[in-house]
Amino acid sequence: MARILIVDDDDQFRTMLTAVLVRAGYEVQEATDGGQAIKLYGASPTDLVITDLVMPGKEGLEMIVEFKQLYPEAKLIAISGGGRGGSQDYLTMAKAFGAQRVLAKPFSNREILELISQVLQG
Q1: What domain range includes position 92?
Q2: Based on the structure, what is the number of domains in the chain?
Q3: pLDDT score, position 86
Q4: Looking at the predicted structure, is the pLDDT value of residue 120 above 90?
C-alpha cells in the first residue's frame, strides 16, 4: 500500500482528498503547510507528496525547493486553485522547481487518481 502525504491549508479540501485516497487503498498523512510537511516526511517518508501551492506559512513553491534539496528522490504532485495570478503560473513554476506533475483545482477524483498512479509507477 503506497503512502501519500497531502499538504493543504484548506481543512475541507484536505479531508475530502484524504477520504478519496483512503477509499482507493492509499495510506494518507496530512500537513497544513510546507514546514509541517517537511518535518513529517523527514520522520516518516512517504511514496508521494501532493501539495497545494498557495498556503500561509511555508508555501508550496518554497516547500518544493526545500524538499528537492533535502530529499531529491521525493515524488511530488503540485495542485493549485490559483491566487491573484491564477493557477497556471504557480503550476509552471512548481514543475520547474521539481514537481513531477501538476494539476489545477478543481479536478475530478478520476484525474487525481490517474495522476497518482502515473507518478508512483515512475
Answers
A1: 3-121
A2: 1
A3: 57
A4: yes
